[in-house]
Write a structure and sequence with these properties.
280 residues; alpha+beta; N-terminal domain of MutM-like DNA repair proteins; Helicase, Ruva Protein, domain 3; four-stranded antiparallel beta sheet; 6 helices; elongated
Length: 280
């Protein structure tokens, strides 16, 4: 699933290519991606036709495009969603689901697995009510590392689980959690209340650094499903030290990186640099 840096790459691309454009027409090719629009696909298209896209914003993994009437077009990419800007006449992508006509160009929502979706947020231009419960992400000005650290240190949950809890800190996914924990030398199963304030603040600093580095390289891409609005993939996977590195030597101490099951996914860590808590 795309994480914060990947979604930010898409947001920045949308800001460059679609802001200021009027939606001349909307074509919903499959109803599932607009399932949140209770009135149906035809109403979704009608409500958006004629509106002007006046911005491109993001919180965590959620994107939204503020409209000239104060509403917002929201997007979540899910596992395989892409938002592509293509010239009119470009051959349709195999999994094209929704098309927005923007004059000479089209904004296309492509989603192979259809876990993502689009919706219209009434009055949501500033911050859609649907995501008001999501915590600020590490790249937002509103992010307060001291408040987040205090919340983490009151919890008995494992630190990796807390990093993935979007009401604690948004936008951190499995890849960047593992990378940040490796940099901090902290095992993902160590309880938040077992960590010192200095350790948690240092870890949150690593989260910000990892995401900034990934953003500079266009995000992390392991297959053709994640691309920016021009269809280009990111390259941060070449810089990963823990995630996906099972049995390869830790670049810090040489111990083989281990992989364990975690919440129907995997966790990667160095058993020497990241000591497991007692009983694990």
């Amino acid at each position: 699933m795309p994480e914060l840096p990947e979604v930010e790459v898409v947001r920045a691309g949308l800001e460059r290519h679609v802001v200021g454009r009027r939606i001349a027409a909307v074509e919903v090719l499959h109803p599932r991606p607009v399932r949140a629009h209770v009135a149906g696909a035809a109403a979704f298209a009608a409500d958006l036709t004629g509106r002007v896209l006046v911005g491109a914003r993001r919180r965590g993994k959620y994107l939204w495009l503020p409209l000239d009437n104060g509403d917002a077009l929201m997007a979540h990419l899910g596992m395989s969603g892409q938002m592509l800007v293509q010239p009119v006449g470009q051959v349709d992508e195999r999994h094209l689901r929704v098309r927005f006509g923007l004059g000479d160009d089209e904004l296309r929502f492509v989603d192979q697995r259809m876990f993502g979706g689009l919706s219209l947020s009434s009055g949501g231009a500033e911050l859609p009510s649907e995501i008001v419960h999501i915590a600020p992400d590490p790249m937002e000005a509103a992010f307060d590392p001291h408040a987040v650290a205090a919340r983490i240190r009151r919890s008995a949950s494992g630190i990796k689980r807390l990093l993935l809890t979007q009401t604690v800190v948004s936008g951190v996914g499995n890849i960047y959690a593992d990378e940040s924990l490796w940099r901090a030398g902290v095992h993902g199963e160590r309880a938040g209340r077992q960590l010192s304030r200095t350790t948690v603040l240092g870890l949150l600093g690593h989260v910000q650094d990892v995401m900034a580095e990934a953003l500079a390289q266009g995000g992390t891409s392991f297959d053709a499903l994640y691309v920016n609005v021009n269809g280009q993939s990111g390259y941060f996977d070449r810089s990963l030290s823990a995630y996906g590195q099972e049995d390869r030597p830790c670049s810090r101490c040489g111990t083989p990186i281990r992989r364990v099951a975690f919440m129907n996914r995997s966790s990667y860590f160095c058993p020497t640099c990241q000591k497991a808590p007692r009983g694990r």
